């Protein structure tokens, strides 16, 4: 096997015995181990096509998910606006009708306290 790292290995040794030493002909030797380079290049070309297809699928999925997130964000913004509007309406209605529920809670607590007081006084007798 010829040394492919040297000029003689790549171009071939020039034969002076044949009398062509000054003819300028170049002999090229191809290593039989690397003879299937075309097949490897074709295989790499197919792999590049597959990677390009995968990249295009990823790009399509990314665009779909970005659109979905944009729509979801718009929906959340609308829901927040609706919730804020409803809270404002509830606050206005409580303000107009008054907050009697606080008086009812205080009255209920006083009645419970009074009942417990009477029960403890009655149980000591």
From TrEMBL:
Q: Which SUPFAM superfamilies match?
A: SNARE fusion complex
This one is known as Target SNARE coiled-coil domain protein
Q: Which UniProt keywords apply?
A: Coiled coil, Endoplasmic reticulum, Golgi apparatus, Membrane, Protein transport, Transmembrane, Transmembrane helix, Transport
- Source organism: Zostera marina (Eelgrass)
User: Could you state one GO biological process linked to this protein?
Assistant: protein transport
Give Gene Ontology CC terms: endoplasmic reticulum membrane; Golgi membrane
> Is rRNA-binding one of the keywords UniProt gives this record?
no
What does the record give as the function of this protein?
Required for vesicular transport from the ER to the Golgi complex. Functions as a SNARE associated with ER-derived vesicles.
* Entry-linked PANTHER family: GOLGI SNARE BET1-RELATED
* Domain annotation T-SNARE coiled-coil homology: ranges: 31-93
Q: Which Gene3D superfamilies match?
A: 1.20.5.110
Its family? Belongs to the BET1 family.
Localization per record: Endoplasmic reticulum membrane; Golgi apparatus membrane
Q: What kind of membrane protein is this, topologically?
A: Single-pass type IV membrane protein
Q: What is the lineage of its organism?
A: Eukaryota, Viridiplantae, Streptophyta, Embryophyta, Tracheophyta
Q: Which residues cross the membrane?
A: 101-120
């Amino acid at each position: 096997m010829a040394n492919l790292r040297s000029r003689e290995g790549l171009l071939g040794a020039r034969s002076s015995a044949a009398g062509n030493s000054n003819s300028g002909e170049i002999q090229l030797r191809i290593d039989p181990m690397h003879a299937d380079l075309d097949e490897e290049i074709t295989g790499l070309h197919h792999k590049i096509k597959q990677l390009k297809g995968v990249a295009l699928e990823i790009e399509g999925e990314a665009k779909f998910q970005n659109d979905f997130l944009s729509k979801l964000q718009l929906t959340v913004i609308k829901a927040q606006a609706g919730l804020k509007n409803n809270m404002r309406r509830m606050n206005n209605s409580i303000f107009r009708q008054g907050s009697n529920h606080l008086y009812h809670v205080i009255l209920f607590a006083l009645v419970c306290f009074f009942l417990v007081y009477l029960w403890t006084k009655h149980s000591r007798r």
